[in-house]
Amino acid sequence: MTHSRFARTAGWLALPCLVAAGLLAWYVTRDPASPFEAEQAARFDPALVSRGEYVARLSDCVACHSLPGGKPFAGGLEMATPLGAIHATNVTPDRDTGIGHYSLADFDRAVRHGVAPGGRRLYPAMPYPSYAKLSDDDVRALYAFFMKGVQPAQQANLASDIPWPLNMRWPIALWNGLFAANTPYAAKPDQDAQWNRGAYIVQGPGHCGSCHTPRGLAFNEKALDESGKPFLAGALLDGWYAPSLRADHNTGLGRWSEAEIVQFLKTGRNRHAVVYGSMTEAFNNSTQFMSDDDLAAIGRYLKSLPGDPQRDGTPWQYQAESVAAKLDNPGAHTYVTRCASCHGLDGKGQAEWMPPLAGATSALAKESASAINITLNGSQRIVAAGLPDAYRMPAFREQLSDREIAEVLSFVRGAWGNHGGAVGAQAVGTLRGHTDPASSSPIVLHMR
Amino acid sequence: MELRINQKTYEVEADADTPLLWVIRDDLGLTGTKYGCGLAQCGACSVLVDGSVVRACVTPVAGVVGREVTTIEAIEADSVGKRVVAAWVEHQVAQCGYCQSGQVMAATALLKHTPNPSDAQIDAAMVNLCRCGTYNAIHAAVHDLAAQQEGA
């Protein structure tokens, strides 16, 4: 009796479980709706292709989908994840190994929803949570560019190193449901057209938040637009501290004018800073190609994001410092011999060519990763308007010990009114290991 | 743009961010200043700007407009520079000589600011690299100069 009642109960329970499992299976493998389902994408007029090329610049597709020396957009960039390495894919119109067989709707589902044909979910290393905000027009133009403006390249995609069962993709659909935007950017009626254009580029194609917004436990960006306080509030990623892009006086853009933001994104430098770290690639491949109107819109939007004095700390003020009187301090001594030629005994740098360290975000943020990383590894070549720059931060990896780097950075982060705080030799050693190309656990890239 | 170099005025055409070293060597033909590393690390390109030593390979030329640049070619026109060169000869400091114009500039700048430097101050200021290893001779020459009075 008991037995059969148990069987009956189990039977009744199994039914909803099966239904739930069925629904879940449908949800995690379904093709999201695309407004382009019925659209024939046959008309690739040159204006649309070139518009698409510009959207590809705004979106910096090349950063991950091209390798130096490789064929454009043929993929291959290795990105480390906590679970194993994954590789950016071939997005040329090659029919076998690229995306030549994608319809416009397929392309839309991949770019804005992270779903490849067949319902396979992409890893959110592809910044589709941001690209979700692309307008229909821009997606159509982007598709035209990738189909007609890019040379097909036969190059098979590399498999990921993530082992089973962690390599199952369907749970990403649940992650998407929780964390990814799924509607294009909607203009805010209480803001003007320039502000809305800036918001669109920053949140959508520019995917600035991928680096500059802190991430939560599930590696999700904590905010995707200005309605969340963490949006673009600065984040530690891949061994760099991507500074705040809000109006924070110390760690953000509080001291920058809109025109200085435009100058920085257009030329790679202004009187406050020079691009370095991962931003060098964003500049080389993307921001310098943006139109003056778009850059002005970005400046306008970013300057509308308020800072947070509590997070940011005491506002920095320049304080004169006699470095010469401090030569018994080993950090000051290293500064004079190694750094002062470019950055100046007064810490003010040289015009916009060599950045000041007095008031630099890397010397004011409590996260010291950027200061350590740039000192160990130097800066990459900045290429503006096709010309490599004349000056570069050299790598001190081979010249200075962990202790010497800690000493000089502790000096810099405490001089001229800077208050980022001391740096420990152990932190230098850790980052030295992680950024050593010969080490077994290098930081490759998590996100861009 | 107009540059003042070794008490002469030169009109040069260069981009604002061109390193001063290229202008001195390539445009003006003053090749006594040497190119070493190009990264402000070795000091072979040292020149004086308003009496302070700077590394010309990392000095955007626009930054020295309106200032007085001195290169090794004119160092003996300076009373301190003249004594430095004499001490260099006395101590036979140079070996291959490539870095020595930069070393002389560094020593001149030090003695202009600190006429009687201590040994520790000499070591702190004389940080240009020399692959021949003439460091001891350099130190001895500057040490001698430190003990002298100007005009002695």
From TrEMBL, chain A:
Keywords: Cell membrane, Electron transport, Heme, Iron, Membrane, Metal-binding, Repeat, Signal, Transport. Pfam families: Cytochrom_C. It is found in: Cell membrane. Residues 47-150, 193-306, 326-416 form the Cytochrome c domain. Transmembrane segments: none annotated. This is Cytochrome c. It comes from the Bacteria. It comes from Pseudomonas capeferrum. InterPro entries: Cyt_c-like_dom (IPR009056), Cyt_c-like_dom_sf (IPR036909), Cyt_C_IC (IPR008168), Cytochrome_c-type_DH (IPR051459), Membr-bd_ADH_cyt_c (IPR014353).
UniProtKB/TrEMBL annotation, chain B:
The keyword Iron-sulfur applies. The keyword Oxidoreductase applies. Gene3D superfamilies: 3.10.20.30, [2Fe-2S]-binding domain. Keywords: 2Fe-2S, Iron, Iron-sulfur, Metal-binding, Oxidoreductase. Pfam families: Fer2, Fer2_2. InterPro entries: 2Fe-2S-bd, 2Fe-2S-bd_dom_sf, 2Fe-2S_ferredoxin-like_sf, 2Fe-2S_ferredoxin-type, 2Fe2S_fd_BS, Beta-grasp_dom_sf, Diverse_Oxidoreductases. Residues 1-75 form the 2Fe-2S ferredoxin-type domain. It comes from Pseudomonas capeferrum. This is (2Fe-2S)-binding protein.
